[in-house]
What we know:
Layout: E1 5-12, H1 14-25, E2 29-30, E3 33-35, E4 43-48, E5 51-58, H2 65-77, E6 81-85, H3 92-102, E7 105-108, H4 115-125, E8 129-131, H5 137-152, E9 161-168, H6 177-188, E10 200-202, H7 205-211, E11 221-229, E12 236-244, H8 247-265, E13 272-273, H9 275-280
Parallel strand pairs: 1-2, 1-6, 3-5, 6-7, 7-8, 8-13, 9-10
Antiparallel strand pairs: 4-5, 9-11, 11-12
The protein binds NADPH dihydro-nicotinamide-adenine-dinucleotide phosphate and the ligand O=C(O)C1=N[C@H](C(=O)O)C[C@H](O)C1.
Residues 111, 133-134, 168, 172, 176-178, 222 line the site of the ligand O=C(O)C1=N[C@H](C(=O)O)C[C@H](O)C1.
GO molecular function: 4-hydroxy-tetrahydrodipicolinate reductase; NADPH binding
Domain Dihydrodipicolinate reductase C-terminal: 140-279
Family: Belongs to the DapB family.
Amino acid sequence: MSGIVVMMNGLPGAMGHEVSQACIRRGLTLAPVALTGGGQPADCQVTEGSTSVTVKLVGPDAAGSQRKALEELKKAHGNRLVIIDFTHPTAVNPNGDLYTSVGVTYVMGTTGGDREALMKATNDSGVYAVIAPNMGKQIVALQATMERMARDFPGAFSGYKLEVTESHQKTKADTSGTAKALVSSFQKMGVDKFEMDDIKMLRDDESQKAFGVSEEHLNGHAWHTYTLKSGDGSVEFQFKHNVSGRRTYSEGVADAVQFIAAKCAEKSKKRTFDMIDILEAGVMQ
Ligand SMILES: NC(=O)C1=CN([C@@H]2O[C@H](COP(=O)(O)OP(=O)(O)OC[C@H]3O[C@@H](n4cnc5c(N)ncnc54)[C@H](OP(=O)(O)O)[C@@H]3O)[C@@H](O)[C@H]2O)C=CC1
Ligand SMILES: O=C(O)C1=N[C@H](C(=O)O)C[C@H](O)C1
């Protein structure tokens, strides 16, 4: 589908910039307005190659201004508009409610919040949406593999003890959504009692460096290690995915935007998707 316009909510944040640039590289049009958090400047500049866009930032302060910005974009671009959200865990549900009540297609990359409530609001509203805690192609493939393993071999790791450590930049507010998704598969494979609160989070420089993260990536990384040990300690499995920087996710977001715009255009009966659906559709670049 051509002529897609994306509204990048969460600019001028780290993912906001990465994703905007990926969308421009993909030939999508970046809307000159975006929703942001409190205390941000009036606008920001996104530059990719020879393209430079000044984006007006609409904060949550002025009542109704964020809704108005969405409604105006919807009026101007109709079904060619796709909203992208990489904001903050506390914004997941209010923003989801805003998108569904205005009736716009959206891609939610932000983690945290009440995921069940987000899914319910989205399914009930009938808007088209992609909701996923990780947009990196290979990590999505690992997630899909673990889901399949859990489906095909439930109990395969029964009696095993699980340990999960995830390290992210210290500004990350929540436990990794990706780690939670993988843990949910391991739980279905029968590991010993493991709660999401048992995920060990590293958020300080010293422990992150000891974990292997380089100085230059302390401000942007996502390192995950999942260790499964048999009851008698004689067998150990380890799964690891270490991402330094954020670029790998942004191409997946552009895939998600193109996928969901096409689903909306063809009036697909299924309306809510995750990244595994997109990987399975064979449209991740
Ligand atoms: N799905 C995926 O593949 C990935 C998901 N993520 C997730 O994306 C999210 C953002 O990460 P990152 O870019 O690193 O974070 P940043 O803190 O760099 O950026 C977040 C931005 O969102 C703004 N913001 C806060 N509240 C709102 C709101 N209500 N509406 C609009 N904007 C708001 C913040 O403004 P202010 O600072 O003023 O609050 C900030 O500019 C996190 O949840 C993270 O886990 C990250 C990488 C990959
Ligand atoms: O905040 C991040 O950086 C990331 N968040 C996502 C998560 O919570 O799993 C994806 C990735 O880990 C990067």
